[in-house]
Amino acid sequence: MSATPHTVTGLAEDSTALKSAVRKFYVRMMPLVVIMLLVNQVDRTNLGFIQDALKADLGLGAAAFGLGAGLFFVGYALFEVPSNVLLQRYGARLWLTRIMVTWGLVTLLMAFTQGEYTFYFLRFMLGLMEAGFFPGVIFYLTTWLPDAHRGRAVAIFLSASALAYIVTGPISGALLTMHGMAGIAGWRWMFLIEGGGSMLMGLVSIRYLVSSIGEAKWLTAEEKRELQGAVDRDIASRKTVQGQKPQWRLLLQRPVLTLCAIYFISVMTGYTVTFWLPGILRQIKDINDFQVGLLSSIPWIGAVIAMYVLARFTDDKGHRKLLVGCALLLQAVGMALATTGSPWFALFALTLAAIGYKSCNSVFWSMTAMSLEPKILASGIALINSLGNLGGFVAPTAVGAIKQHTGSLQAGLLGLTACSLVGIVLVMSLRLRKGI
Q1: Close Cβ partners of 97 (under 8 Å, ≥ 6 residues apart)
Q2: Of 174, 178, 306, 386, which one is least surrounded by beta carbons within 10 A?
Q3: Side-chain half-sphere of 373: how many Cα atoms within 13 Å?
Q4: 185 within a domain of the structure (yes/no)
Q5: What is the CATH number for 145?
Q6: Glycosyltransferase: present as a keyword of the record (predicted)?
């Protein structure tokens, strides 16, 4: 029995075999990629919890810390598109495993940082080694799931990054309490243990990750046929006359560049919350590292809930463009409010910003995958992610420099508020297929 074609906005009636195949993918593959991203994000964001330790041990000021935090995204951007091309050539199983093992190794080497230049170099190398992981998984989901089933998968996958922010604080805070064991500083223990964990997770992924529908031994022949057919029909529905142009011309078209700019703006907010919230919370009287870690997880708990609710809504109803705009508005409001009041009020305001950031990303990637020409799907996702993630370089670097010059985060946060408002204008300017 053939599956009824999916609509853009919601689920049409699926065959029993297609429903079974999708369910098996969710059960067997989604937990694995979620854990992989969880480990990835812990290694990427743990830096925010050791700013004071790096200043005390290595003499890194706010500007140097912000530059080092941001250099990750330079290396990331340089190798993002080539990495996704190599993933298509070698398959998700092999390439994603390579990424995990090498970024784990560099994270471990961060424990041997001796000064600002080794700090800069290793942060740059961490980005280089990690490049391609996130867009690789997003592309991987497009090869496995029809459009109408992918929104929830993307949200579940992205929830791992929000969950990472929830657990990174307590985990990193606990590892920092190992300070002095065997004569090793707590922040060095943190990198040694978390980097080693990433390498171990890479060995797990090489064993269990399945690259394509045809390679899945746990799908029946009928399930493979129905699932592949549904994916192929969605790919065919996205093909246009424009797809006859060379790839480089398609990648440089206005809609793709606009999507890059929107994601860039959203990422600036997200990494500002990530890297600077712990410092804000340390202004609370008599608070320790572990308590800072626990409080830092609050914004991301709200983000996980909001992401999943939105994903269910958009799979069924669409309206992705409108929801991305609303999420950017919430980012702007949160950043503006964070410039007023006490550290406790700033925690509330940045919780709003974090919810806006993660909600924006969840809907954004679903919208993007459904609107790109199939010919440039892998490279387009990689390009948008790489250029967008440069926001993770610009924001921490700029906010760090502003803080060092003015002694306050206020001007930097207001600047990010303005950027989010510009993002709303860009979203509304997009011309997408009806129902997206």
Answers
A1: 202, 203, 205, 206, 209
A2: 174
A3: 19
A4: yes
A5: 1.20.1250.20
A6: no
13-71 tens-digit pLDDT: 568 889 999 999 999 999 999 899 888 888 877 787 787 788 888 888 877 887 887 78
Q: Which two tokens stand for residue 140?
A: 């991987």
pLDDT tens digits for 271-289? Answer: 787 767 777 887 888 787 7
3-state SS assignment for residue 319: coil
Tens-digit pLDDT profile for residues 154-204: 878 877 777 776 777 778 778 888 888 888 998 899 999 999 999 999 989
Written as one letter, the residue type at 73 is F
- 7 located within any domain: no
pTM (two decimals): 0.70
Angstrom distance (rounded) from CA 41 to CA 137: 14
Give the list of residues 6+ apart from residue 39 with CB closer than 8 angstroms, or none. 100, 164, 197, 198, 201
User: What would the mean pLDDT of 407-419 be, rounded to a whole number?
Assistant: 83
Instruction: Measure the CA–CA gap between 87 and 93, rounded to whole angstroms.
Output: 9
Write the single-letter amino acid at 345: F
Sign of CA dihedral 198, 266, 348, 407: positive
> Whats the size of the chain, residue-wise?
436
